Structures are given as C-alpha cells and as structure tokens.
Amino acid sequence: MAQTKLAVFSGWSLVWRDYYQLTKPKVVALLLLTAWVGMMLAQPGLPALDVLVVSMIGIGLLSSAAAALNHVLDQRIDAQMARTHHRPVARGRISTERAVVFSLVLAATGFVVLYAAVNPLTAWLTLASMFGYAVVYTMYLKRATPQNIVIGGLAGAMPPLLGWTAMTGQIAAEPLLLVMIIFAWTPPHFWALAIHRRDDYAKVNMPMLPVTHGIEFTKTAIFLYTLILFLVCLMPYLVGMTGAIYLVGTVLLNLWFMGYAWQLKFHAKADTAIKTFRFSIVHLMLLFLLLLVDHYLKWTAF
Ligand code: HEM
Ligand SMILES: CC(C)=CCC/C(C)=C/CC/C(C)=C/COP(=O)(O)OP(=O)(O)O
Prior knowledge:
Pathway: Porphyrin-containing compound metabolism; heme O biosynthesis; heme O from protoheme: step 1/1
Low-confidence stretches: none
Number of strands: 0
Bound molecules: protoporphyrin IX containing FE, farnesyl diphosphate
Order of helices and strands: HHHHHHHHHHHHHHH
Strand content: under 5%
GO molecular function: protoheme IX farnesyltransferase activity
EC number: 2.5.1.141
Number of helices: 15
Mean pLDDT: 95
Shape: globular
Subcellular location: Cell membrane
Largest sheet: none
Helix content: over 70%
C-alpha cells in the first residue's frame, strides 16, 4: 500500500514538474524582478504591499501563460533541436490540448487578477505583452526575419512599465527608459546563445542572425549592441532618475559586458559565446538591483 502511494506521489510530482517547466520559470523570475523594480521606482517610499503582491501574481501568471503557449507553438522545432528536444510538449509528456488549456487558465486568471485588483491599464498592457511574445514573436517574427528578436524583444522588455503602471495607473517616461534598456539588452543576450546554437537553428531553418548573416557578422552586431546598451543605460542618470551609485555600477557592468563582446569578436574560445549569454542574465539582474539600491540610498541622501 505504502509503495503504491509513493508511486502515485512520484508520478504526480513528475507531471507537475513538467507543467512548471512550461512556464520557463527562470525567465519569468527575471522578468518579475524587472517588474518589481518598476513597482518600487514608481514612488519615493515603499509601495502598498497588497497591490505589489497581486501585481506580481498577475504579471507572473500572464508571463507563464506566454511561455507555455510558446512551448505549444514551437513543439515541432523544439523536438528537433538539441537544446529543447527534452521539453514536455515536444516530448509528448504533456499533450497540446492540456498545454493550451493550462496556458489559457493562467492567462485568464492573471488578467482577471490585474483587472480587478490592480487596474485595467496594467491588465491590458500585460495581455498585449503576452500576445506580442506568444503570437507576434513566436508565430511570425521568429520564423520570418533575423531581426525577430530585436522586434520581439519589446514584449519581454515590458515588465518594468507593467510594474510602474500597476502602482500609478499611468504610463510615464521613466519606466520607458527601463523598457529601452531591456530592449537594447535582448539582442546581445540572445545572439550570443544563437552563435553557440547556430547549427541547431540552421537544422530547423530558423532565420536567426548567425544562420542568415554568419557568425562574424553576429559577433559585430553583439558588440555594437553592447555599445548601444552602454549609452542607453546612462539615460536614467542623465535625466536625473538615478544617482551616482547607479552611474558607477552601470558603467562597470556595461564595460564588463562590452569586454565579453570584445573577446567574443576578437579572441573567442569554444565557450565564449555561451559565457557571454550567461553573463547577460547576471548583467540584467545586477543592473536592476542597482536601480533599486540607488533609488532608496539616493533618496535618503537628500
Ligand atoms: C525576444 C526576447 C528574448 C529571446 C529571443 C530570448 C531567448 C532566450 C533563449 C533561447 C534562452 C534559452 C532558453 C533555454 O534553453 O531553456 C533564454 C534564456 C533565458 N532568458 Fe532570454 N530571451 C529573450 C528575452 C529575455 C528577457 C526579456 C529576459 C528577462 C528579463 C530573459 C531572461 C532569460 C533567462 C533568465 C534565461 C535563462 C533560462 C534558463 O536558464 O532556464 N530573456 N533566453
Ligand atoms: C507578459 C509578458 C511580459 C510576456 C513576455 C514573457 C516571456 C515569457 C518572454 C520570454 C523571453 C524569451 C525567453 C524568449 C525566448 O523565446 P524562444 O522561443 O526564442 O526561446 P526557446 O527556443 O528557448 O523556446
């Protein structure tokens, strides 16, 4: 009897682990960090905790729904790529129907939470971001143009604005600067991985930049985008939104990113591309944590 119960429990935990994987949890975690910073920067003091919590839940649910829909729409190519062939829908561990229902339940719940407990503007903007990623990027851009991730990157760059509108009920210039930062960060983030996985994307005829324009061209594009990112990251300081703590930190972080891009372009080793990709995640995380530290320390300085 005990063995049967253990078998049932372990079976269920495997199923839920697969559903959890559909939500791209690490991606959503960083998306939520950027949304949270948007919420914290929206006012001088601390935000209302109840609004913060329901906003994080709503944005998290809609982001997870977008990720799950991406698994469904990409299952054919996921099944053929070394990096993604193990995924639950690609492997048939979760049926298309169940994955779609899972995604729609997450999306509906997230939208209702945001609409009812936060504000309609944030609900609609978050739904639009989900649509932008799951439909516009995944179904069209990804398969149509090597600029796919530059344009599609806007959806994933929205969370700081979503966090801001959750607190204020209105769009403002400051969070749009944060959106621009993630927008400029996305190409070096993804193209470094795309270089590392070029053959995978070529095998499924995905028009990623290293496939359509070659690895050298992509390395140049990555370096140029880290230069653009360096300049865009100065904007919050130049407009007076942040102080010296952020300025020093952002200069160091972006010089570090440019160093990776320079090494990738001129002194690449076998693992430089994947190391650049992994650093891009640390870079964005530290950059947004820096915005938070600066916001409160800068504020208490006056
Ligand atoms: C169009 C925009 C983007 C594209 C094409 C893209 C592409 C990718 C890809 C292909 C992976 C590898 C996933 C895997 O192998 O499981 C990845 C991982 C990741 N991405 Fe992005 N990304 C984008 C935007 C973002 C944004 C906006 C964030 C967060 C703010 C983000 C955070 C992450 C994180 C944290 C990982 C690591 C996930 C893991 O290790 O499981 N990405 N990205
Ligand atoms: C509501 C909201 C903010 C929505 C956006 C949420 C979201 C999940 C953005 C994901 C960014 C990302 C990892 C894209 C990769 O897709 P891919 O298909 O190129 O990667 P894959 O090949 O690993 O599946």
